[in-house]
Amino acid sequence: MKVLVTGGCGYIGSHTCVELFQAGYEVVIIDNFVNSKAEVLDKIEQITNKRPFFYEGDARDIELLERIFNEHEIHAAIDFAAYKAVGESVEKPLMYYQNNLNCLLNLCEVMQRHNCKNLVFSSSATVYGEPETVPITEAFPLSSTNPYGSTKLFGEMILQDLYRSDSTWSIAILRYFNPVGAHESGLIGEDPNGIPNNLMPYICKVANKELPCLHVFGNDYPTHDGTGVRDYIHVVDLAKGHIAALRKINDSQLLDIYNLGTGCGYSVLEMANTYAEINQVEVPYQIDPRRPGDIPECYADTKKAERELHWKAEKSLTQMCKDSYRFTVNSQK
Ligand code: NAD
Ligand code: UFG
Questions:
Q1: Which residues pair with 256 in a beta bridge?
Q2: Which of 187, 241, 314, 323 sits at a 20 to 30 Å CA gap from 170?
């Protein structure tokens, strides 16, 4: 069975392509390398001994999508193609709505024309806005605090409307918590350009002495050590969640929503200290003011995914820290 993966050269997409191959699927990628590199294709091949079919181009390009669907019998699509930097989305909202929503809309349009109606969509825990309690279940109220979050919320609404209009679609909306880590081979991982916005890539650069120290955004939150708590999930576990979701939508026609997290929350200081200890490196830090828009605590209730997808994150924080560091060191070579 062939799966079209939009944004398949990116961080989560590349790990998902590896898992797709390992689960016996064939993989077709479309990516314009706006936030990834062509060498990822070689790395996927190095890990799996299989090379994805690849189309370089914009996932909004309907003609290119038509070509792909004409050249391959696509059974399902996984839509990763999007911009994802929250701060940038506040500065360039139109660019975010334009890219993130049109990637989804045009993909659905072409899929519908080709009667391919199995879709997995990358959503985010950001759609829970500022949750009142934790753990967060899929039934919690939704809101968004920035344009990036709105693109995910609207993406979900578009898919709900599409399914309401035609229940022969089968759609899994996956709300990721905080993906970290890298493939254990050290060949693929997350390597943002410039100064990272997210915690784990920032810690990696501090540990690797590319940045002088970690800025901890606030130590006065109502959490056990005052720093923000998040549900960090190993990217390989997350990638496996997509295989479970594909199985689910293959077996039944539905639209369903799943949290993909571990159900455990770790604080910023726990992350920095564990990383330093496990990898025998130094991660100096200083306490800075809170970052605007951050919430104190966020972690998933994972029961629905466990029950219905038969999937559960397995990798520990130690593995997340080890694998991140291995990739950082490897990518310097
Ligand atoms: P990423 O930036 O590493 O991957 C996205 C890929 O899509 C990149 O390879 C990029 O080049 C490609 N892309 C973007 N726009 C494109 C377009 N118009 N045409 C073709 N290719 C395009 O991001 P990621 O972390 O792998 O995230 C994948 C998905 O998961 C995104 O939809 C993101 O919003 C979502 N998500 C990510 C996180 C996270 O923390 N990483 C959390 C929640 C949800
Ligand atoms: N943090 C720091 N210093 C840093 C970076 C982050 O202290 O340099 C703290 C933040 O204040 C927060 C925690 O580390 O408490 C995690 O921050 P990230 O930026 O890594 O992640 P967020 O939870 O803020 O957001 C991420 C993605 C969003 C996504 C969300 C849920 O950036 O796009 O996870 O999936 F929506």
A1: 172
A2: 314
